[in-house]
Specification:
Order of helices and strands: HEEEEEEHHEEEEEEEEEEEEEEE
Number of strands: 21
Strand order of the largest sheet: 2-11-14-13-12-15
Distance between the termini: 90 Å
Number of domains: 4
Shape: elongated
CATH class of the largest domain: Mainly Beta
């Protein structure tokens, strides 16, 4: 019985050992096969890097403000008896916008004018009596002063009546009215916003390190999304004398003609300040840049060798320094040489040394000034 048990154990041991050996050989074969496996090449598009001369410029986001812009308000208290304007209408300087009730002032003016006429008559009588040496010099001076006071009082009431006619202080476009007929206004109550539309200011900020490049009269190109401005040209007219301590930016103001009134105060616009200089750059499609927190890079296509020494078309990652953007293009200022073949699409699926196959039938946008329908 014991002998049969030993034989069974021996058979089982041999069986387990043979199974383990077979699995071990299978795993070794799979590891060897995996080590020799090469992933298929990735399909990419490429472009040959070319050096270009880009005019020196600085880009920023600007805000449109009116050269003259106010909230027209009441100067004196009174009730609105007439509204002489329509919201959104263009007005000229001096146009009457609102008339306030002046019935009380007109009654006061009638009394003041009557008093002035009486003072004038007394003065004329006094002048005749003075010539006849009947009236003393002091009495004549008193009559003259009374006439001047009466005339000044009438003039004061006339000025009050005129101030109750609220007028446009300059040429511009009205906004939406803030008052209603019959409403009582106190001094300072808002009536309607008024903005001059041509020209307009474009205010934008630039970092303090660019202050040395700024100059009065420099050309500024302005564009706006969804508004067909073309590339409207403005001129730098003012540079702030202080740098913002919070942002370390300096505010710049440009003046832009706006004859059609397409730009309105408060709008955001894209600003490109031309510096009058140029520098060599390599312009690539924006899709060629692999942006990452540790640095921006591109993939350069070249001939490489596998671990077994077999040549193939592959890519190497090259870190670069990028500059400004223009349309579909990004300027590379360091890290890339002219003549190198750069991957322009498909960079997100690449790694250093990956095999690629180039297919340039469909290329990404590479236009420095694309039209909206082509962008």
């Amino acid at each position: 019985m014991r002998k049969r048990l030993l034989i069974m154990l021996a058979v089982m041991g041999i069986f387990i050992a043979s199974i383990g050996t077979m699995k071990f050989l299978q795993i070794q074969a799979a590891i060897a096969q995996g080590a020799s496996w090469q992933p298929p090449p990735e399909a990419v598009t490429t472009v040959v890097a070319r050096q270009e001369q880009w005019a020196g410029s600085l880009s920023a986001i600007g805000s449109v403000t009116a050269v003259h812009g106010v909230m027209v308000s009441a100067d004196l208290p009174g009730m609105v008896v007439s509204i002489e304007f329509d919201s959104g209408r263009h007005v000229r300087a001096g146009d009457v916008l609102v008339r306030l009730d002046t019935s009380q002032e007109r009654a006061q003016l009638a009394a003041a004018e009557a008093q002035r006429e009486l003072a004038k008559l007394n003065l004329e009588r006094g002048e005749r009596l003075k010539d006849q040496q009947v009236l003393a010099e002091a009495d004549y001076d008193r009559l003259d002063a009374e006439y001047k006071q009466a005339e000044a009082r009438a003039g004061e009431i006339k000025a009050t009546i005129d101030r109750k006619n609220i007028r446009a202080p300059f040429d511009g476009v009205l906004g939406i009215r803030q008052i209603n007929l019959g409403q009582y206004l106190t001094a300072g109550d808002a009536v309607v916003p008024l903005q001059s539309m041509d020209p307009v200011y474009v205010n934008f900020s630039l970092p303090q390190q660019d202050v040395g490049s700024l100059r009065i009269g420099a050309e500024v190109r302005v564009s706006a999304d969804s508004i067909p401005l073309g590339r409207s040209k403005a001129k730098v007219t003012a540079i702030n004398s202080v740098v913002d301590e919070a942002t370390r930016n300096v505010e710049v103001q440009a003046t832009l003609p706006n004859p059609g009134g397409q730009l309105r105060p408060g709008m955001f616009v894209n600003v490109q300040l031309l510096l009058g200089t140029s520098r060599p750059v390599i312009a690539l499609p924006a899709s060629a840049i692999n942006y990452a927190p540790y640095g921006n890079s591109v993939y350069i296509v070249g001939t490489m060798k596998s671990p077994k020494g077999v040549p193939y078309r592959g890519v190497r990652q090259q870190f670069v320094k990028v500059g400004e953007e223009r349309g579909d293009q990004v300027a590379v200022v360091e890290g890339l040489k002219a003549g190198e073949e750069v991957v322009t699409s498909g960079v997100f699926k690449l790694r250093n040394g990956a095999a690629v196959v180039v297919n340039n039938k469909v290329q990404p946008g590479n236009n420095p000034a694309p039209k909206p329908e082509n962008n």
